[in-house]
């Protein structure tokens, strides 16, 4: 497929910098665009038949206490603030149905609080094979709250000085933070006479507990009415989440074949891409893969990402995976 990008850029440059500079630019464009072999894979994944099934919470059914209280406070205009814990945990943005009305859920940070939480850190102190059983407690013999804390603190301890991944969403300050007072009261490790060593994964770990200061956000829940019918919320969700709308009847047989293969094992093509695939990419508004330097521009998405499409009356999530290799 001939490059239209080079021609457009050459025409734009000709009047400003002269033909010699344009010639050099054309050489560089050719090198960066075609110097690497690019392979693009297009895949489709089935989603729920309606967006409201997947994205709307019905608080009348789930009965999550903090969600329901936060939504009721926001709807009624009463004061309600939560410390540390976001009022509506989960995907952002989120929507909920309450008493027949659909709301978009959000929160506003209105302040901060200085609080103290216990932090559990573990330090390796030997192997269980070499230790007297009376000197440590097994992780599985601890209360559930401590079992979870030991597992997460162990991940942090294992990572010290080693390259590798750590679940930073769980690990904090190099260990595990007991944030909930009620839960912390159930802990044996936090007690003044609690065990000083715990066994986990065939090793003995020395227990270190520190009470440290945290500055935590204070949230105010916010809920905006969006719709009062299923059709209304479906339309609102489409406007927010769905990118391309494609009618198979408007496609050529070659274009429909691209979608058929994408729904199965995936459709893969090398650059320069076949005309049918180029047409599909245009319909998806993924022009970074066909205009300009594919190996550098491909994969650059707008925010928020529009990776949902409506094809033949059904919703799909799509993914484009670009692979390059230097041909030397």
Could you describe the 3D structure shown?
InterPro entries: TAT_signal. This is Lipoprotein. By secondary structure, this protein is an alpha+beta fold. The chain has three domains: 94 residues, no CATH class; 76 residues, no CATH class; 100 residues, no CATH class. 33% of the residues lie in helices and 33% in strands. It contains ten helices and 13 strands. The radius of gyration is 28 Å and the shape is flat. The N terminus is likely disordered.
Q: Portion of residues in helices?
A: 25-40%
Strand content: 25-35%
How many domains in all?
Answer: 3
How many helical stretches? 10
Would you count the extended β strands for me?
Answer: 13
How would you describe the shape?
flat
SSE pattern, N- to C-terminal: HEHEHHEEEEHEHEEHEHEHHEE
> Which class do the helix and strand fractions yield?
alpha+beta
Average per-residue pLDDT, rounded, comes to: 81
C-alpha termini separation: 22 Å
Low-confidence stretches: 1-35, 300-305
Radius of gyration: 28 Å
Major beta sheet summary: 8 strands, mixed
